[in-house]
Amino acid sequence: ELIIGKNICWWQNLLGEGWPGYNLELFNYPEHYHGDIENVYIPHGVIMDRIESIARDILEDLGQHTLMVLCVLKGGYKFCADLVDSIKAQSRSTNCPLTVRVEFIRLKSYLNSCFKGIYGFYNKLISLFFPHAKQNVLIVEAIVGTGKTMMSLLKHVVTFQPKTIKVAGLLVKQGPNGAAMLPDYVGFVIPNHFVVGYALDYNEYFRDLDHICVISEKGKLKYKV
Ligand code: HPA
Ligand code: MG
């Protein structure tokens, strides 16, 4: 049986209760998204700082053996790239730098802002540990909503019999429909807003936005399919 999520405390809402987000006037963001977002919920620089601490925690726990990072596409690509960069940078300053390998899996479970279950499982993993079995696996996912996507993925990954499996989630959604599964490493706990940017999309738009923002009703209509 998998035991995950020991490290997170639900009261640890780093953004503060009822955080309203920053006024858009304070930020630079692409002109084509003017009117499509409500606020800047988490600025890019804050995300980068948080990733540095998550990377430090990961190194403390898993820094002894080769780390197999499994990036969940598409939303996880920025978080994964920045997290691996930070792990590498911090690991270089130790006397035993960590070997990090990276693998990708692509899932799709949202249409508009609704959870549909996994309807795109594009590439099943076949060579996760080749040529060495029994590695530590770190699943890197941008957002853990219901936890259902993550549970399906975990069932798939355990079949490879890794040494350990840990999950890093940049965002975890709170609330009655929020996460049933808690990642081991959490960036931010957020309310049940639909957020975009930093590779998170709404129907494939907004991945080209650096900050994590709350989408506006106008934005939802504009890019609805
Ligand atoms: N934004 C983008 N993708 C998502 C979200 C969200 O808030 N929740 C689950 N997938
Ligand atoms: Mg998406």
Describe it for me?
- By secondary structure, the protein is an alpha/beta fold.
- Helices cover 23% and strands 28% of the residues.
- The protein is built from four helices and nine strands, in the order E-H-E-H-E-E-E-H-E-E-E-E-H.
- It has helices at residues 44-62, 77-92, 148-158, 217-222; strands at 37-42, 67-73, 100-111, 114-121, 136-144, 164-173, 185-190, 195-196, 212-215.
- Strands 4-3-2-5-6-7 form a six-stranded mixed β-sheet, with helices on both faces. It has a three-stranded antiparallel β-sheet with strand order 1-9-8.
- Strand 2 (67-73), helix 2 (77-92) and strand 3 (100-111) form a beta-alpha-beta unit.
- The radius of gyration is 17 Å and the shape is globular.
- The structure holds hypoxanthine and magnesium ion.
